[in-house]
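Bumping my old thread because nobody answered last time. Still need a sequence for this structure:
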């Protein structure tokens, strides 16, 4: 890969926000409009969706228990095709929080599970065409149930632990359509495969073979 060209292209497409104005602010969602100057000299308008009073960054957690089950959440998602959202725990990062602190808090609050083994495995923008929200993803390994759920007043969440095979079947059957859950499942399988390969190498080295 030509990294020099790659970085030049990135710089080529970085625009500049000239001004921003508020169009709408509801209880949770907001809409802003920004005047943007592109590097080719053109000026365009772009609309931005904001959430949670501009504090839109989130964490997703893939919680795996000591028994090897993934703790899924089930809650109302009225605007989806099924009206129900099934996936991994998630939540917004509070002001002043790191993504890791937020991941530990959200796991405990939404599920009552805790873990001492958090591994950051991915970051992605949820919808870069109209939002700057950044999602940070963690594996949480060897989870144990230590608390009761501590849900917000507008939250109603059931827990549904499943095996990896069952989760893959739920995805195949169309019950789980959460993009973050699919990303995290794939990352967990890669992590487990790499961990197994590393352990095999260590055993061969220790045996002298």
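Sorry it took so long. Here it is:
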């Amino acid at each position: 890969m030509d990294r020099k060209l790659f970085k030049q292209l990135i710089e080529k497409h970085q625009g500049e926000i000239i001004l921003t104005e508020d169009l709408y602010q509801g209880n949770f969602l907001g809409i802003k409009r920004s005047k943007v100057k592109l590097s080719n000299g053109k000026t365009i308008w772009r609309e931005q969706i904001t959430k949670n009073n501009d504090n839109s960054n989130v964490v997703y957690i893939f919680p795996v228990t000591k028994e090897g089950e993934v703790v899924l959440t089930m809650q109302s998602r009225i605007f989806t095709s099924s009206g129900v959202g099934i996936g991994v725990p998630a939540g917004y990062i509070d002001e002043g929080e790191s993504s890791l602190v937020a991941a530990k808090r959200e796991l405990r609050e939404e599920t009552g599970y805790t873990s001492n083994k958090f591994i950051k495995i991915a970051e992605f923008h949820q919808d870069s065409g109209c939002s700057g929200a950044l999602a940070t993803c963690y594996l949480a390994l060897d989870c144990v149930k230590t608390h009761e759920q501590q849900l917000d007043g507008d939250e109603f969440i059931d827990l549904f632990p499943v095996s990896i095979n069952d989760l893959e079947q739920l995805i195949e059957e169309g019950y789980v359509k959460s993009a973050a859950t699919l990303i995290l499942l794939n990352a967990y399988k890669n992590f487990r495969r790499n961990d197994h390969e590393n352990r095999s190498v260590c055993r061969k080295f220790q045996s002298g073979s």
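The first strand starts at residue 16 and ends at 25. Let me know if any region looks off to you.
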